[in-house]
Every structure is written in C-alpha cells, then in structure tokens.
Amino acid sequence: MIDIDTLPGSEINEPVYRVILSRYPQIHLFERVSSAQDWDVLYAVESLTNPRLRDEVGDIRLVPPEDRVYGDGASWIMAAFTHPPVGGRGGRFNRDFGIYYCTADEMVAIAESSFHRARFLRESRIDKTTQEMRVLRAQLGPTILHDVQHLVGNAIYDPEDYGEAQRLGDTLRVANSFGIHYQSVRAKGACYAVMRPRVLSDAIHWRYLRYHYEQGSIVTVESLDGGGRR
C-alpha cells in the first residue's frame, strides 16, 4: 500500500479536457444558483414537478456543500461527482464516488475515452456503430494534487485491474485530497483525477466528435465542427 504522506505534490493551474457521451445533457440547475442555500430551495421546488430530476442531478450527497460549484458551466463539473461509476469495475481510482478525469492534452483525453468506449461496446457485443461525443474544456487550479507519476510500474497502473488504484483513491478521498496527477496508460501523457469540484471552473462545451467503432476498437475519430478552437 502506498503511503500517501510520501507522495510529492504537483502545482496545477491550466485548462483541461474531458470527453463524454454527447447524449448526457447539461443539468442547468447548478447554473441557476450561486450558493448551497439557494440550491436547497431550488432543488426542493423543482423536484416537486420534475420526477426525473434526481436521476439527472445524481446523488448530491456525495459532494460536501463546501466543495460544490454553481454558476456557468457548473453542471458539466458536478455531474462527474454526483454520478458514481456504473457496473462492477469502477474507474481507475474510484468505485463508489465520482471523479472528474481530465488531461491538459486533448489527444490524451480522446485516447482515454476511446479505450473505455471500445471496451464498453465490446462487452455489449456490438460489432459496429458510431457514437457522438462531447469534448469539455475547463480550468483546473490553482491547486496541488498528489503526484504518482514516478510510480509507473506500480500496481496502481495495471491496465485492467483497478483494485490497488481504487484503494489509493479511497485513502486519498478520506484525506480530503484534491486529486491525483498520474500517467495515462492509454497514451503518452499525463492525466488528472480530480476529487473535489471546487478546484474546477469555467467548464464549456469545446467541440463534438464522432467515434467510429468496428470489431472491437475505435477505428476513426471524426471532428464534427471543424477541429476545435485553439
């Protein structure tokens, strides 16, 4: 087991990218309030007339009030924390709680999401399909994350078995860590596993992609609106 007290810190303050299915809608409720008190009132009122609201918002109890974010773009951020992974595998560093996985390199974000979408489709026994994806861009930091990049080769980097990495994630969450700076195992580059939404801001839709899946893998990634806005 990794002693978290021995881990160095990474100072992070930069734009980051995340790729999600485009069918996931923006919740909008988080954009309409500016404080936890406003949220409680609005959620109570909205939930009276919208029985699907709980599914859309997710489990807000997973995020302490002091870590919640509101205002423009907040729904894109909060959704990652209020919707834990489904299925038995979980994410690399999480199983029962949400994490905002992202990277400063958009191509690494695409490689990561391509791997996970392809695995899901293989396990669903789908031979050929396309899926529309949404690239999000947000600001991460300034913050300090626990850095495990030097531990490449450790069991936390196993490409299939997330058990050891999830134990590390559980330990860091209990310690109120802001997140983990680690190396991608799907592409050459670094990723962030952000554990507290308050260090993320200014999330926006960046562009649409279409993943072309065939016989077990994503064979083509198509930009649907001109290749991004850098």
Helix content: 25-40%
Beta-strand portion reads 25-35%
Question: Secondary-structure element sequence?
Answer: EHHHEHEHEEEE
What's the number of extended β-strand segments? 7
Number of helices: 5
**Mean pLDDT metric:** 90
Most strands sheet: 7 strands, mixed
N/C terminus separation: 41 Å
Based on CA atoms alone, the radius of gyration comes out at 18 Å
The count of domains is: 1
Shape: globular
Are there runs of 5+ residues with pLDDT below 50, and where?
A: none
Describe what is shown at a glance:
With 230 residues, the protein is α+β, with helices and mostly antiparallel strands. The chain has five helices and seven strands, in the order βαααβαβαββββ. Strands 1, 2, 3, 4, 5, 6 and 7 form a seven-stranded mixed β-sheet that branches.
Q: Your description of this structure?
A:
With 230 residues, the chain is of the alpha+beta class. The chain has helices at residues 36-49, 53-57, 74-82, 106-123, 163-174, and strands spanning 9-21, 100-102, 128-147, 179-183, 190-194, 200-214, 217-223. The chain has one domain. The protein is built from 5 helices and 7 strands, in the order E-H-H-H-E-H-E-H-E-E-E-E. Strands 1, 2, 3, 4, 5, 6 and 7 form a 7-stranded mixed β-sheet that branches. Strand 3 (128-147), helix 5 (163-174) and strand 4 form a beta-alpha-beta unit. The radius of gyration is 18 Å and the shape is globular. The mean pLDDT is 90.
Secondary structure topology:
Blueprint: E1 9-21, H1 36-49, H2 53-57, H3 74-82, E2 100-102, H4 106-123, E3 128-147, H5 163-174, E4 179-183, E5 190-194, E6 200-214, E7 217-223
Parallel strand pairs: 3-4
Antiparallel strand pairs: 1-3, 2-5, 3-6, 4-5, 6-7
